[in-house]
Amino acid sequence: MMRYQIAAAVLLGILAAYAPSATPASYSSPSAPASPGVSTPTASPGARTIAVTLAEFRFTPSAITVKVGRPIILRLTNRGTVEHEFVSPAFFAAARGVAVSGGELEEGEEIQVAKGKTVTIRLTPTRTGTFRFWCGETFKGKLHREFGMRGVITVTK
Fold it and tell me: Does residue 61 fall inside a structural domain?
């Protein structure tokens, strides 16, 4: 009987490790330390940290769901071999308190992330909806977005 209980526990552990997450975006608690050398812009209690990896030609995760009125911190890390951008004019326009560390919000719509670097963005979404984001860098005359480097942020109640 004990053998079956151990086997069941091992099987559940394996399934838990490889099962898809119910939340498409990975996140850590607000008290979790940031990556070395990365400062979190004005961290506030209750802010959800969402780690987003940028690489050729994808964002991971590419689908993010957040709640309206709840502060978030997007931690963008470029693991690619070239510079990438996080572009989302409508999402930034539908947020308040946008603060960027490690980079800057250019023209109110895009943030460049150099290869090997991390940029953190703190903001609070103010409207529900689905907002697209993409990389505006080019490769062979086409936007990285055309190669699949795009995603969506869904803001719910």
Answer: yes
Domain total of the chain: 1
pLDDT in tens, 85-127: 999 999 999 999 999 999 999 999 999 999 999 999 999 999 9
CA-to-CA dists, residue 61 to 5, 96, 107, 113, 152, angstroms: 35, 23, 25, 16, 9
How far apart CA 51 and CA 74 sit, in angstroms, is: 6
Q: Tell the residue number behind the tokens 């689905």, with chain if given.
A: 130
What is the pLDDT confidence band of residue 43, given thresholds at 50, 70 and 90? low
Residues 109 and 99: their CA atoms lie apart, in Å, by: 13
Strands 48-55, 72-78: pairing is parallel
Determine the structural domain holding residue 55 and report its residue range. Answer: 24-156
Mean pLDDT over 48-64 rounds to 98
Please give the structure tokens belonging to residue 152.
């969506």
**Which H or E run includes 3?**
helix 2-18
Residue 10 lies in a domain: no
**Confidence band for 44, pLDDT divided at 50, 70 and 90:** low
CATH number at residue 49: 2.60.40.420
Task: Determine how many CB atoms are found less than 10 A away from the CB of residue 134.
Answer: 21
Per the domain annotation, does 9 fall within a domain?
Answer: no
**Would 85 be classed as within a structural domain?**
yes
